[in-house]
Model the fold of this input.
Amino acid sequence: MERMSERLLAENPREMIRLRLNRLRSVKLNEAILKEKNDKLDIPLDDSIINKKAIGLSSAIDSGLGFWNNESDSLNARILSRYYALLQMTIAEQVSSVKNKDGLAEVQRHTEYGHGLGNIRDQSSNNYLFDHYVYILRSGHFYSYVKHLGYDSKIFDFEKRPKNIDSLPDEKKAHLVSIVDLFRRVPELQPVIREYTGLEPLSFQVTLATFNYSQELRQRSPIEEAVKTSFLSIIPESDEVTLDYMRSLNLQVENLTEEKDNFTKQKLFVGEYKHPSENYWWYYMDTHKSSHSGTSVVHPIFGECRDQIVIHFMLLYSLSILVRYLPDLWHEIINGELDNIGSLIEYYLAMFDNVVPLMMLGRITERKIYIDIPGGFNGRV
Done:
């Protein structure tokens, strides 16, 4: 289904997004938004279901904004407030869908079985970012949410909490995601992740290769092909990134070769992306773009999931476990030898507050939302 677009004008984009989310507290406005989506269905939902969903959406948004509007200077309070805000917003996303008949009561019932995630530590190590892992359980809210998104989590979830990492077979260990690897998959952290962790990002800016247009002309023929090849450049943050490393990742671009930019002489990697010829490459490729990140491709978790809200949810859950149940480790992160991690978390939360609210607004309304600054190129005259 093609998403509608909405273009907003604001000197303060963050405040505008809060205002647009705040209007979803209104049941009447929610009914109008849901009916707009409902009218596009072959078999629309009954008005009674739309009303039930509108009421539930209003309640979930109200709860989510209550957490999001917490402006505490305390880092641990900010972690918890953002985690519970995102929890409520994902509930709101499920309720707002017209592809199911669930209201708030049906969706939140899953939370009675827990949040749907677990944490486990590798006791043989002593490095928080690297030895703490998160995994999906086959019950609870997050399990329900990833099913709503269309993922078959039974491929990579856990039926019950493992006692320890050593008890797991190798194939199940592959279903654990370390905290550092979640940070590495946030595109907004690309410029700083190596500084904080010593590792390269697991997301990269992607753009059309400079020679693409001449290559396109060679492909054209009197009879248009159904499949088109676009030549894309993947731009690393560091010259330390190797071709073998890039080829080891699932970045959707094939036949990668190492090149240098003609002007900046910066290292980049050029490859092929095959897609239907009806539209441009970015219409089909699973990418992420925000006000703090160029168009980026992400190495997926569990071999298939690049969804940024899934990644943020898992990361914030892990951080919430840290501040709730590991006070000795938290003290080291705030005041001790691990203060670099505290700085990374501060940076991450700043990016989160500037990026995720807009993402959730778009997902709930099912609209592509653009925010222009007055006087900018796309600003209204």
